[in-house]
Structure formats: structure tokens, C-alpha cells
Amino acid sequence: MQYPFNTVVKLSTGCSGTLIGQKYVLTAARCVHDGVTYIKGTKNLRVGFRRDRDKESGPEKAVDDDRDFYWIRSTEVKIPQGWKASNGLNLASEYDYAVIRLKRKHDNDFMDIGVGSRDVIYPGRRVHFSAYDDDNSTDLMYRFCPISEDNSDLIYHYCDSKASGVGAGMYIRVWDSLTREWKRKVVGVFNGHMWVESRGSSDDFNVAVLITPLKYAQLCFWLEGDYSSCNGRN
């Protein structure tokens, strides 16, 4: 129930997400859209927040989503045009991100978005993310591992995960010279497993879409509704 773990949410479609505002959730596009149309369940999409059981009295009971999570409905889902343009044939992983707008504000903390520039994203740099691995479990699983490879749009890594972890925000710790403290910034969205052609051979990785300057501008516009409000944000 403490930051950064209270920024993690579960989607009713079976994926994970990360809070990036008082009414906004960052997740993977594939969690709500298959490249052709919105997947089943997106129309009535709900976002699950873990209850603070320490504030409740009475004996502990078996895991029950209706008791251990409270849900907020979504009112809007934003997906990049590049994901829809694939027509479901060869889904473009570099566009596998989406933002969900909630019907009402939540009471949890939320993460800042950062740009995955070359000075902060490189092989060997440690990335972190958390997710609820099973639909019927309240166990929040936290991972961290080094980046294996990267390119201009994707992060390749070997962090262990399950399918329900797709959509989780991957973050790094960066030093803020003004406040003189370490801060966490989401720089990618976990997309799952992928076979990758590299140096003439195939290898399998877990993959995250990298938040580039253009993607950052898109996300900022979805949140702010005005590009001028995004000037100077990082």
C-alpha cells in the first residue's frame, strides 16, 4: 500500500496498469485492442485497486476480488494510431501502449512519466516493474533486472513475468539534481515475450515499449489535452 507499489492496478481484461495521474492509467494497447477492434470487455472496462486491509477490522477471509479490490470504471481509452494501422496482421510493438481515463479520481499515488533517452536507457541499466500475476490473487510481484539490449523503440530484458503482467509500467530510478534525491520515472510498458532477430540469429526476450520523446508528447497530450502544457515536462 506504499509508493511505488500502490501505483499498480489490475484491469478487468486480465492485464496490469500503472497510475500516471489522478484519473489516468498507463497500460499496453493489446490489453484493450487487438489491432483490428476493441477486445471483449473493453466496453465495460474496470480498473482494480487493492484495498488497505490494515484499515479494516475483523478476521481475514479467503481472497475475494469483491473484498480485496475496489473497482473504478473507465470512460475513455486512448490508443496510438500506429497500433490500429497494423490491422492485426503484424502488430507494431513500438505502438503497444494505451491510456485509460477513469470515471472518477482515485486516492493512490501515481508515477511520473519519463523519456527513455540514451543517457538513461542502455544495456546493463536496471529496470523495475510490478504486477498482480494471477486474477485470483492479491499477491503483488515486484521484479527488477538489467536491460539486455535496446533499440530506438523497445527494451529487451529477462525479467520474469506472466501474461497478466502485460501493461505494467517499467520504471528506472533517476537522480534529481534540484531536489537532490532519487526519483522513479516510468520509461516503458511491459509487452510480454518476443522472438528477436539480432546479429544474424534469433533470441527470445521479454520486451517493453520505450517511451521516446514523440511517445512522451503523445501521452502528455492525452493527459493534458494541450501540447503547450507539455513544454518543459520531462
Automatic annotation (TrEMBL):
The keyword Signal applies. The keyword Ligase does not apply. Pfam families: Trypsin (PF00089). Gene3D superfamilies: Trypsin-like serine proteases. Coiled coil: none annotated. Keywords: Signal. Residues 3-132 form the Peptidase S1 domain. InterPro entries: Glutamyl_endopeptidase, Peptidase_S1_PA, Peptidase_S1_PA_chymotrypsin, Trypsin_dom. This is Serine protease 23-like. It comes from Saccoglossus kowalevskii.
